[in-house]
Design goal:
By secondary structure, the chain is an alpha+beta fold. The chain has a domain of about 80 residues: Winged helix-like DNA-binding domain superfamily/Winged helix DNA-binding domain (Arc Repressor Mutant, subunit A, Orthogonal Bundle), CATH 1.10.10. It is built from 5 helices and 3 strands.
């Protein structure tokens, strides 16, 4: 296997790892909440009405995948996004989903009209 193939496979695996990290709705909500401002676990739990162990577990995975980072602020640890483009990527996916839903709604409406 040459160097380029190996690099391509590594990038593909990283891509899959990021996508799997975003496969949970709670983690997506965490990303959007952290896009507003850095927060500690307690603040995130309160903002998202989740318990702290759940938030911590999801943050651990997001940290392992390099999507968020922990920054010590005195006695407190705050979490922040490592790259704001992640939110842009999520917004782009939401726009695609919105368009797909509109398309399906138009198909359903056309089907209903055809049956009348």
């Amino acid at each position: 296997m040459d160097h380029i193939t190996s690099l391509y496979e590594e990038i593909t695996q990283l891509h899959a790892d990021v996508c799997s990290a975003l496969a949970d709705p709670k983690r997506i909500l965490l990303i959007y909440t952290l896009a507003e401002k850095p927060r500690n676990v307690g603040e995130l739990a309160q903002a998202l009405t989740m318990n702290q162990p759940t938030v911590s577990r999801h943050l651990k995975l997001l940290r392992e995948r390099g999507l968020v980072q922990a920054v010590r602020r005195g006695a407190c640890v705050e979490y922040q996004l490592t790259d704001r483009r992640l939110v842009q990527a999520l917004d782009l996916l939401r726009a695609v989903l919105h368009d797909r839903l509109n398309y399906r709604a138009q198909l359903a409406q056309a089907d209903q009209i055809a049956k009348e």
